[in-house]
Amino acid sequence: MVELEEDPRREEVQDHAFDDRSQVDADLLEKGKAESAEMSPEEKRLLAKLDRVIIPMTMLLYLVAYLDRGMLGNARLLGLEQDILDGQSSEFDWALSIFYIGHISFMIPGNILAKMVPRPSYWIGAMTVMWGLCSTLQAVCTNFAGLATTRFFLGLFEAGFGPAVPLYFSFWYKRDEMGLRNALFIGSAAAAGAFSGLIAYGVQKIETSYPLWKILILIESLPTIALGVVAFFLMPDRPATSRYLTESERKLAVQRIGGKSTLTLERDQALSAFRDYKVWMCGVLYMGYNIALSSISSFLPTILSDLGYHGASAQIRTVPPYTCAFIIMVVSALSSDRRFKERGLHLTFLGALGASGYLLLILVPTDNIGEDFMARCRLTNESGLRYFSTFLITMGVYPCIPLTLSWVSNNAGTESKRAVSLSWTVIMGHTFSILGTHIYPASQRPTYLLGFGMCFASMTVATMTAFALHLMLKKENANKEILERQPEYEPGKGDRARGFRYIV
Fold first, then answer.
1. Residue span of the structural domain in which 188 resides
2. What is the pLDDT of residues 91-117, one digit of tens each?
3. Contacts of 115 (CB under 8 A, 6+ apart)
4. What's the whole-model pTM score?
5. What is the DSSP letter of 13?
6. Residue 164 φ/ψ, nearest 5 degrees
7. Which PANTHER family match (predicted)?
């Protein structure tokens, strides 16, 4: 039985080091058995209780995070670029990029601190309030310097939140429960894209002398601060001391995850992330996906505008692609978690789907973009085909993000390694997000061959890397089976422990 400490600041928490219970879980995964079928009624009730609070709260937080980071795409169509950037598209691109510079700078320190703090609710709440404040301050900017400063700190504080949530999930959920939860969490990004379009559409209809882009920023930013305050009080902390659970539920929550450690960072495990080829290959995946993700989230309204949809019409047409993306995120996560118990083949298929959307944008000409509404809706028309391609892109790119982060988390055997692995993967990806904000120069409207070509290439590389990693992990698991039968075999720690099997 697990002994519970009274003081949450001195608690011992599980580090997910591999033990006998985890070995059973890994074996079940390898045999393709549904773990949910093995749950006791008490465990099912506990899981449902956790999901009722953790999932809606993290989804709402990520929704407002993505609204705050991505609002400039819609604000651009409402006059931000003309009012404070003097119409300079290069300065607009750098305003997008500076977010990722701030994000990268705090990624690893932020996730290490998130692992070490005894009260995750305080950490997540504080980060949310701070980035909400930075986002709100964008509405009072009068020049590029002010906008760049607020965007930098917006990225910095969001870095303390985004990668910390998959780590936070690992405090509570098993490996084959992570894909769906990460998909619902990150699926809020797609939902944010849809909501942002709806909000911008409504703001476009307001008749006022006050700049509409400022109204948009205030509407999307102020709720973030309120949600951060709610997170302080509502989010459960660690399984061993959570006030949200009864004593018996706390014990069960600790037992179902397994393992034991302090809040301190295990340096050898943290550093092992940089020596692990799996982390680097997942970083390559994340690079490819983030070039596409950063560009499509920031430039989709502009791309639609260039297809002949203007103003509110362009804003509202951003909603359907994001809605479809969210649906595919949930379906693919369920399939990956429960049906097939794997990640690599799902990422291969979804990556190919996204790449096909970019290929279609490259191949379909822009010479005959129609002005008639019904003509633009037909797939036999160039505009209709190009609009259809945005569905392929969002449905292919967005689901790859949670599956990749789940893959990284699943195959890191300890919490210390997981914290650094997740951070490093996201850093690699966001380094290329900076590139993604500079590959759609206004001079290339409406073909954007540079942007579409680079996104097609990046998605193709990511797709091939996912398939290669899938095969390599299958081989590693087969080798582990052979090695563990040898009398002289000496198991290591974490993912090198006896019985640990990689999610392929």
1. 24-496
2. 988 998 999 999 999 999 999 999 999
3. 167, 263, 265, 415, 416, 419
4. 0.80
5. B
6. -70, -25
7. PERMEASE-RELATED, TRANSPORTER, PUTATIVE (AFU_ORTHOLOGUE AFUA_6G08340)-RELATED
